Automatic annotation (TrEMBL):
Gene field: ltaE
Superkingdom: Bacteria
CDD domains tied to this protein: TA_like (cd06502)
Names of the cofactor(s): pyridoxal 5'-phosphate
Protein's UniProt keywords contain Ribonucleoprotein: no
Record-stated family: Belongs to the threonine aldolase family.
Coiled-coil ranges from the UniProt annotation: none
Keyword Lyase carried by entry: yes
Range of residues in the leader sequence: none
Protein name in the entry: Low-specificity L-threonine aldolase
Source organism of this protein record: Pantoea eucrina
GO molecular function, one term: lyase activity
Domain Aromatic amino acid beta-eliminating lyase/threonine aldolase per the UniProt entry, residue ranges: 3-282
Length: 335
C-alpha cells in the first residue's frame, strides 16, 4: 500500500521496535519509569521549557493544555479550522465547560492579531472570560513565521492572555525554518508535540511548559484517564524519534514539492504545498472515480474536490512515481 491519507499512518521501523523491546520500565504513575522520565527531560530541554509530560494521544495533550489554562466559563481564541477546535470532538466544551471562540485564519495559517483583539471579550458578567490564544504550527502544512509568533507573544503579554501552540507537526516547522525547537517555543507558554505523525512512533504526544503548569497537567492527565504504568515501552519510541527522525523530515518536504511539480505537469490544479502537505483541486465529477482508480492500485488517497496528500517516512520517491503514473493513466482514461 502507498498511503497518502496522513502522516499518522506511519509504522515503527525495526530499529524503533528494537528500542521499544529493550526499554527499561517502571510505573509512570509513581513517576519511576526511567524511559518516560528521560523522554520528558529531553523534550523539556530541546523546547527550552522547565518540564514536559508524556501523553498517549495528542488530543488528550491538547485537552489537558486547555483544562490547565482555562476554568469553567472561560474562553480560548482559536482558528476555525484548528485541530483543537474542529477535530477533537468538542472536548474542551464538553469536559471542561470552556468556550471556544473560533476565528478565520489568514492564508498563511496565522490568526490576524487585529481579529484576535476584536474577539477578546470585555470584563463584563455577560461574557465568558477570554484567557488563552491557541495557535497551530504547522497549520494545514503552513509554517507560522517566527516574526508573527513574536508579535503574538507580545500581544498576549499586553492583553493578559496565555499562548498555547498545538505543535502536532512543529518539527516540520523546525526543519523548514532551519531553527531549533526552542527558537519557536520561546514565543509560547505551552506547546504540544506529537510523536506519532512525521516522527513515526506508534503512539504518544508531549505537553511542555513551566514546572507548576506541568504539575497541574499531571493531575488532569490522571483525571482524564491518561495515567499509564510501564509506559517506557512507548516512551522509548519517542526518544528514538527525537534522536533519529527529525532531520529526515526534509525528505518528506522535498517529496511533497516533487509531487506538486509532477501533478502540475499533468494539468492538475495545485492549491498549495508547504512542508509535507499537498492540496489539489479535483473536479467534482471525478472524485469518486479517482478514489476507486487509485485504490485498485493499492494507493490510498482521501479524494475530494479539495484533496490533501501527506508525505511521510513510509512513502519514498519511487512510490510517488507510481502515484504519478497511475494519476496520468486516470486522466488519459477520463479524457
Amino acid at each position: 500500500m502507498i498511503d497518502l491519507r496522513s502522516d499518522t499512518v506511519t509504522r515503527p521501523s525495526a530499529a524503533m521496535l528494537d528500542a521499544m523491546m529493550n526499554a527499561a520500565t517502571g510505573d509512570d504513575v509513581y513517576r519511576d519509569d526511567p524511559t518516560v522520565n528521560a523522554l520528558e527531560a529531553e523534550a523539556a530541554a530541546i523546547s527550552g521549557k522547565e518540564a514536559a509530560l508524556f501523553f498517549p494521544t495528542g488530543t488528550q495533550a491538547n485537552l489537558v493544555a486547555l483544562l490547565c489554562h482555562c476554568q469553567r466559563g472561560d474562553e480560548y481564541i482559536v482558528g476555525q479550522q484548528a485541530h483543537n477546535y474542529k477535530y477533537e470532538a468538542g472536548g474542551a466544551a464538553v469536559l471542561g465547560s470552556i468556550q471556544p471562540q473560533p476565528i478565520l485564519a489568514a492564508e498563511d495559517g496565522t490568526l490576524p492579531l487585529a481579529d484576535v483583539a476584536a474577539a477578546i471579550k470585555p470584563d463584563d458578567i455577560h461574557f465568558a472570560r477570554t484567557r488563552l490564544l491557541s495557535l497551530e504550527n504547522t497549520h494545514h502544512g503552513r509554517v507560522l513565521p517566527l516574526g508573527y509568533l513574536e508579535q503574538a507573544w507580545h500581544f498576549t503579554r499586553e492583553r493578559g492572555l496565555a499562548l498555547h501552540i498545538d505543535g502536532a507537526r512543529i518539527f516540520n516547522a523546525v526543519v523548514a525554518q532551519r531553527v531549533t525547537l526552542a527558537e519557536i517555543a520561546r514565543y509560547c507558554d505551552t506547546l504540544t508535540i506529537c510523536l506519532s505523525k512525521g516522527l513515526g512512533t506508534p503512539v504518544g504526544s508531549l505537553l511542555c511548559g513551566d514546572s507548576a503548569y506541568i504539575e497541574q497537567a499531571r493531575r488532569w492527565r490522571k483525571m482524564t484517564g491518561g495515567g499509564m504504568r510501564q509506559a517506557g515501552i512507548l516512551a522509548a519510541a519517542g526518544r528514538y524519534a527525537l534522536q533519529h527522525n527529525v532531520t529526515r523530515l526534509q525528505e518528506d518536504h522535498d517529496n511533497a514539492a516533487w509531487l506538486a511539480e509532477q501533478l502540475r505537469a499533468l494539468g492538475v490544479e495545485v492549491i498549495s504545498q508547504q512542508t509535507n502537505m499537498l492540496f489539489v483541486q479535483v473536479p467534482s465529477g471525478q472524485t469518486e472515480a479517482l478514489q476507486r482508480w487509485m485504490h485498485a492500485a493499492d494507493i490510498l488517497i482521501s479524494v475530494g474536490t479539495r484533496t490533501r496528500m501527506v508525505t511521510h517516512l513510509d512513502v519514498c520517491r519511487a512510490d510517488l512515481q507510481q502515484v504519478i503514473a497511475r494519476w496520468q493513466a486516470f486522466l488519459q482514461s477520463a479524457g
